[in-house]
Amino acid sequence: MRFLLGLSRAIDALTEGVGRAVVWLVLLVALLSAGNAILRYGFRYSSNAYLEAQWYLFSLIFLLGGAYALKHNAHVRIDLIYGRFPPRTRAWIDVVGTVLFLLPMALGVLYLSWPWVMNSISVREVSPDAGGLPRWPIKLAVPIGFALLALQGISELIKRIAYLTGQYALAEEEEKEVA
What we know:
Keywords: Cell inner membrane, Cell membrane, Membrane, Transmembrane, Transmembrane helix, Transport. InterPro entries: DctQ, TRAP_DctQ. It is a single chain. The chain has about 180 residues and is mainly α. It has helices at about 1-45, 50-70, 80, 85-120, 135-165, 170-179.
C-alpha cells in the first residue's frame, strides 16, 4: 500500500500542476474574449481565429481541469444524500462510484477518442472556416483530459481504500469533503 500511496501522491502532484496552469487559461480566455469584442464592435474587425481560440481555451479549461476538480472534490454529486452518510459510507460510495462509473467512462472516452484524434492528426485537420485554426490540437486534448481524469480517479481510489483499511488518514479538507 505504501507504493500505491506514493503513486497517488505523484498523480496528485501532476493534477495540481496541470490545474494551476489551467487557472491561467481562465484569465487568458477572458482577455481574449474582451479583446475580440473590442476589435469587433470598436473597430469592426473580426477573425475566425480569435473566436476559435476562445472556444479552444474554454474547452481546455474543462478538459484539463476535470482531474483538478475531482482532486479537490469540486465535482458534481448529489450532496443532499451523500452528505448525510458517515465518513466510511461516503468513502465506500466513492470507491464504488469510481470503479463502476468514473473509470469505465474515462477509459471508454479515451479508447473511443483515440482513432478520431489520430485521424485528425494524420490529415492535419484544420477548421473549415476562413482563417480558422488547426483542429487536431484541441482534439488531442480530449484523450489527454480523460487520461488525467482516469489517473486522478485511480489516485482517489487508492486514498479511499487506504482510508477504509486504516492505512491513510485523510487530510482535514478531504475529511470534511469525504466525511
